[in-house]
Design goal:
By secondary structure, the protein is of the alpha+beta class. The chain has a single domain, classed as Ribosomal protein L33 (Rubrerythrin, domain 2, Single Sheet). It has 1 helix and 4 strands. A 4-stranded antiparallel beta sheet has the order 2-1-4-3. The termini are close together. The structure holds zinc ion (ZN). Zinc ion binds next to loops.
């Protein structure tokens, strides 16, 4: 399957915090995230995304490892 890449860009799954539906797969830069935390004290998560199951925009949290 896909090669496991090492680096700051990590693929993450996004899960709806309301219904728990697995919604999106995205990548985010861990280094970037850390910098953001340091400078603004905020992270990019949870994200507001459209959930197909809830049929509205909900907060999405990062899910654990992708298969
Ligand atoms: Zn949902």
């Amino acid at each position: 399957m896909a090669k496991k890449k090492k680096g700051p860009r990590q693929p993450v799954g996004l899960k709806c915090s309301v219904c728990g539906a697995f919604g999106y797969i995205t990548q985010f830069n861990k280094t970037n995230e850390r910098l953001k935390k340091q400078t603004t004290g905020k992270t990019t998560f949870p994200l507001k995304k459209y959930c197909n199951r809830c049929r509205k925009a909900t907060k999405f949290k990062t899910a654990k490892k992708l298969k």
